[in-house]
């Protein structure tokens, strides 16, 4: 009998980056469709501009750097779609182009491309726009304004007004970013990711559960806190990014709890009404340390270390 010894990996699967990204795009479609129905044609324009400009910047930058093209893996399209979902419905599309360049050119390609970025590109793009163009990034449109004869009417987000009803929050008929208002569509998308095993539920459950628990302890309405703002969008689609979140299940729980703590603290005590993007970005920076803390030891390593006197 002969044995063939070869380098790892020894187990192969037909899962590819492209298939994963296509699944993510499919899971984002319910929230995108809801956003376009609620906020009208400009929401669709901004989603398309962000997606197209992200793919364009990835293509042109890979050409400039003389590296193999990666636009076919669909990761740039996912980044652009997420960025568009994080923008106000009536914002000038040129801001989406700027955010796409920051997300793809600076956050992703500058660090080596997919899997090498230190933070979620869409989140960095949104935060740069929010800090640089605060006025434009905080103008929220009244739902279904486009069905009337008048121009866009400004409104407040549920986190600012504090007076939205549960059904409006669940269906998304409130002010907010294009893809964050409809909790029903976001939950549906999150379930698609979980049941297709594209993500595990550890980080989303820890994230949402921590915000709910701390909100309850603080004497506020936990259900309102869960359904309002960008918590659902962030928990299911941005706190689960492969490259910028921990590898182990324990690490994902720690990551989610950390995101929840920071989100609650910013919402409750900060000058911004929302803290989801900032919390995920800050926890992205801690991922290497979380991975080191939760590093799995090969079977027998602990015993060998004890016998050698190292432990």
Short account of what is shown:
59% of the residues lie in helices and 1% in strands. It has 311 residues and is mainly alpha-helical. A two-stranded antiparallel ribbon has the order 1-2.
Helix and strand layout, with pairings?
Blueprint: H1 17-39, H2 41-64, H3 75-85, H4 93-108, H5 121-132, E1 140-141, E2 154-155, H6 158-161, H7 166-171, H8 183-195, H9 202-217, H10 222-227, H11 231-238, H12 249-269, H13 276-293, H14 301-307
Task: Output the keywords.
14 helices, single chain, mainly alpha, 311 residues
Could you characterize the architecture of this molecule?
There is one protein chain. The chain is mainly alpha-helical and 311 residues long. The chain has a single domain (17-292), classed as Ammonium transporter fold. It is built from 14 helices and 2 strands, in the order αααααββααααααααα. A two-stranded antiparallel sheet has the order 1-2. Helix 1 packs parallel to helix 3, helix 1 runs antiparallel to helix 8 and helix 2 (41-64) runs antiparallel to helix 3. The protein starts with 16 loop residues before the first helix and ends with a helix.
What are the segments in which pLDDT stays under 50 over at least 5 consecutive residues? none
Strand coverage percent:
under 5%
* Average of per-residue pLDDT values: 89
CATH domain topology: Ammonium transporter fold
Give the helix tally. Answer: 14
Residue share in helix: 55-70%
Determine the structural class based on helices, strands and strand pairing.
mainly alpha
């Amino acid at each position: 009998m002969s044995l063939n010894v070869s380098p790892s990996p020894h187990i192969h699967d037909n899962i590819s980056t492209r298939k994963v990204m296509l699944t993510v795009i499919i899971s984002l479609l319910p929230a995108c469709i809801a956003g376009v129905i609620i906020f009208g044609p400009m929401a669709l324009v901004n989603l398309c501009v962000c997606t197209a400009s992200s793919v364009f910047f990835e293509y042109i930058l890979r050409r400039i750097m003389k590296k193999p093209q990666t636009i076919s893996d669909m990761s740039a399209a996912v980044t652009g779609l997420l960025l568009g979902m994080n923008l106000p419905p009536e914002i000038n599309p040129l801001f989406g182009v700027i955010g796409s360049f920051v997300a793809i050119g600076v956050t992703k390609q500058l660090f080596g491309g997919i899997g090498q970025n230190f933070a979620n590109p869409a989140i960095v793009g949104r935060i740069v726009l929010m800090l640089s163009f605060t006025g434009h990034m905080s103008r929220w449109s009244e739902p279904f304004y486009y069905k009337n004869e008048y121009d866009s009417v400004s409104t407040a987000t549920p986190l600012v007004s504090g007076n939205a009803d549960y059904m409006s929050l669940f269906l998304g008929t409130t002010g907010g970013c294009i893809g964050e208002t409809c909790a029903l569509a976001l939950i549906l998308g999150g379930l698609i990711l979980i049941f297709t095993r594209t993500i595990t539920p550890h980080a989303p459950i820890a994230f949402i559960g921590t915000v709910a628990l701390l909100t309850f302890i603080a004497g506020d309405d936990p259900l309102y806190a869960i359904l309002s703002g960008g918590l659902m969008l962030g928990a299911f689609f941005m706190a689960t990014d492969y490259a910028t979140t921990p590898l182990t299940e324990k690490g994902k729980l720690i990551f989610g709890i950390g995101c929840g703590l920071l989100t609650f603290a910013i919402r409750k005590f900060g000058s911004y009404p929302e803290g989801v993007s900032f919390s995920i970005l800050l926890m992205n920076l801690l991922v290497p340390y979380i991975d080191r803390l939760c590093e799995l030891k090969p079977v027998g390593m602990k015993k060998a270390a004890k016998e050698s006197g190292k432990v």
